[in-house]
Amino acid sequence: MPYSVAAQTPPSHGGRDQEIVVTARASPTPSEADDRYKPTPDASTLRSAASPLDTPQSVNVVPAQVIRDQRPRYLDDVLTNVSGITQGNTLAGTQDTVLKRGFGGNRDGSVMHNGTPVVQGRAFNAATQSVEVLKGPSSLLYGIMDPGGVINVVSKKPLLDTHLTVALTGSSYAAGRSGLEGMADLTGSLGGNFAARLVVDHQDEDYWRNFGERRDTLIAPSLAWYGPRTQAVLWYEYRKFDYPFDRGTALDPRTLTPLAVPRRQRLDDLNNRMAGSSHLVQLAVDHQLGGGWAAHLASSYNSETYDAGQLRVSGVNVARGTLTRSNDATLGSLGTDAYAQAYVDGAFGMLGLDHQVIVGIEFEYRRYYRRDLIRQPVRSTFSYGNPVYGLEAFPSAVSASDSDQTDRLYNYSLFAQDSIPFGDRWIVSAGGRLVGFDQRAGRGRPFVANTDLTAWEFVPQAGLVWKAADVVSLYASYTRSLKPTSTIAPLASGVTIGSGFAPERGRSFEVGAKLDIPDRITATLALYDIDKRNVLVSQFNTATGLTEYRAAGRAISRGVEFDVSGRITRTLSVIGSYAHTHARTTEDPVFAGKQLANVAPHTASLSAAYAVGPIAGDDNLRLGGGARYVAQRPGDSANSFRLPGYTVADAFVTYDTVLAGKAVTFQFNLKNVFDRTYYTSAVNVYGVAIGDPRRAIGTMSFRL
User: Fold this and answer.
1) How would residue 549 be classed by pLDDT, with cut points 50, 70 and 90?
2) DSSP letters of 362-394?
3) Range of the domain at 291
4) How many alpha carbons fall within 13 Å on the CB side of residue 517?
């Protein structure tokens, strides 16, 4: 992507402005008073400070003010504002699982934190500044990746101005289910060019269904140096969490519709919860070398561990009104990721042309490990018409053949890109990444490796931008993605995935148009065609009578997307999106011609905020609301059942005033205004996730 080194003035300290000349991932964020729906992209997403108009790829941003207005809980909630996004298998509501343009899954490596990979199940929290989405294959910038795109969660950074914000929140569902949250955000100068920040947040609330609690604690300090030539930010995040592990409801096998039970009624048991903790340490350094060149370093270490009770439904007997269930659990799950990156960028002239280049190296070690997989029969029959809970003790029968599940990946890369402007209107870019990877995966005691491969691959990318006007550009791009074919589970006949198995490869053509009016509005219209090949599939060999596995599957996704965000008038701001997604499996012995699971052919969203203005002097009233639509979609790869489409509306009101000389904000949000029952995703007919019912949220915040 094109890159520019630009001067920037951070928030002042003591009436003194400091010039910051490097604009990259360690640059200070906009002022906390920034109330615009017009997004300010973060340099960590594109590895540069390039204007969106100069980028031959769709980039969508959910800015800080939208997040403050909407009060989303999870990353999925934030991304309802972005086109082409649907929810996948969230592992019983404990993982961020984002399907981008039809592709993705939990733990697919597509969620980033300030441009570096994370293994946390939930990446969005009170320390988040904004969320950005880079659409389409992104292996040039991010390496091993599915072709749908990348989600970058951008953190709050220390500011040089001192302030403290304290917020108290109460929330309530029906049937007396309620919750409390307290948050404190302190930032300011430590003297000279040093700044620090501390975000602390604790949530404790009843789960909206008939039992369960949700607790989440975040401690997130950060330290920054904003010098004239060098900037550095060090982040740390600690989270402790205890969530319900809830797979939702099951379907009636006769009608393939949800069982006729109240939506509040759970089908599992009291031990179904996930408890764990995570640590994230990240360092970003940007340094101006001189002569228009800059160096950038980033490193991170991330870990998450949890234990989870996972009693699950495996059958429905409608005649008796009972369920077949298995008392399962996972103990000692540990995910770790260590990452380092270094690159330089700058400009030079050669053969009468200007070149803006980026050249870098990257290394990552990622490991998912689950120590004890417990598989145990239930003790009693469960009647979903007359449920009795608490009869099942936490299971203890460890399955040796399923335990010690391990997926370990090393990958190392060299990448480069050159962007060449032709006159004032044209930009041509081309680049590539050389990726090496070593992956080993398997399970069991004794351990059996079902994936063991080492390979090198090259991934190219090219783009063209025509700036039709100062605020309008048209673009076209050709991009590719790469992801090794791997599995933890054993394959038929002891087949091991080795270097003879080609990796999953994605290819995308994309064209689009962009509008970017400074301080007003940004919009993107994109048309794309993605082809993903070498998906691992099974096929029965009639000659040998064996099921053989080979990299032969193929899936496609073609669509149109539109996103808009910004200020329509002085008092009205909007963020909206629409996507048509045609995603299908095209080559597979069983699923050829089927739609991809959980991918809606149509999605849309629109939210608006209206500034009413002063009511009684030194105050300000804002009103807002919006709705999101997700069309009917298949719940599994076989398309054996479908999840109904839904429209959900939300609303909010904020009132800013001054009490005792301090700024105070009162905010009220109403989620799912019309209390719709809707289903967000499915794993199979026994695990259909239910969307949250109506929820009232009241917040009082003080700025000290």
Assistant:
1) low
2) EEEEEEEEEEEEEEEE-SS-EESSS---S-SPP
3) 43-318+340-703
4) 10
Torsion of CA 136, 145, 277, 332, to 10 degrees: 140
Q: Each residue of 679-689: pLDDT tens digit?
A: 999 999 999 99
Over residues 18-32, mean pLDDT? 51
* CATH number reported for the structural domain that contains residue 214 in this entry: 2.40.170.20
Report DSSP state, residue 200.
Answer: E
* pLDDT score for 660: 86
Tell me how far apart the alpha carbons of residues 473 and 207 are, in angstroms, rounded to a whole number. Answer: 47
Residues facing 453 on adjacent strands: 439
The secondary element (H helix, E strand) that includes residue 44 is helix 43-46
Per residue in 281-307, pLDDT (tens digit) is 999 999 999 988 999 999 999 999 999
Find the largest Cα–Cα distance for the chain.
85
- Residue 636 forms part of a structural domain: yes
**pLDDT (tens digit, 9 = 90+) per residue, 162-216?**
999 999 999 999 878 999 999 999 999 999 899 999 999 999 999 999 999 999 9
Helix, strand, or coil (residue 589):
coil
Give me the pLDDT at residue 4, please. Answer: 39
What is the four-CA torsion angle of 94, 100, 104, 106, rounded to 10 degrees?
Answer: -10
DSSP 637: T
Whether 304 contacts 240, CB under 8 Å: no
Segments of 545-692 assigned E as strands: 546-567, 572-587, 602-613, 620-630, 633-634, 642-643, 646-659, 662-671, 679-684, 687-690
Of residues 230, 232, 164, the one with CA closest to residue 195: 232
CA–CA distances in Å: residue 332 to residues 310, 477, 584 = 14, 44, 37
d(CA 284, CA 303): 18
Give the pLDDT confidence score for residue 108 in this predicted structure. 86
Contact 533, 557 (CB under 8 A): no
175-189: pLDDT as tens digits:
789 999 999 999 999
Q: How many domains does the chain have?
A: 1
The single-letter DSSP state of residue 7 is: -
Q: For 35-44, 378-387, 556-565, which range has the lowest pLDDT when averaged over its residues?
A: 35-44
Residue 328, domain member (yes or no): no
Which residues, in sequence order, are CB contacts of 651 under 8 Å at separation 6+? Answer: 624, 625, 669, 670, 673
Q: Which one-letter DSSP state was computed for residue 348? A: E
Sign of CA dihedral 340, 143, 598, 384: negative
| pLDDT tens digits, one per residue of 657-675 | 999 889 999 999 999 999 9
Residue 27 lies in a domain: no
Token representation of residue 513: 């148009």
CA atoms within 13 A on the CB side of 664: 9
pLDDT band at 16 (very low <50, low <70, confident <90, very high): very low
Q: Do 25 and 398 form a contact (C-beta atoms < 8 A)? A: no
For residue 164, tell me if it sits in a domain. yes
490 secondary structure, DSSP code: P
The per-residue DSSP string of 514-572 comes to EEEETTTEEEEEEEEEEEEEEEEEEEEETTTTEEEEEEEEEEEEEEEEEEEEEESSSSE
**To the nearest whole number, what is the mean pLDDT of the chain?**
90
The tokens for 497 are 């995935």
SS3 78: helix
Phi, psi of 41 (to 5 degrees): -65, 145
pLDDT at residue 7, as a whole number:
35
Instruction: Give mean pLDDT, residues 136-158.
Output: 92
Region of 597 on the Ramachandran plot (φ > 0 left; ψ -120 to 50 alpha; else beta): beta
User: 148 near 102, Cβ under 8 Å?
Assistant: yes
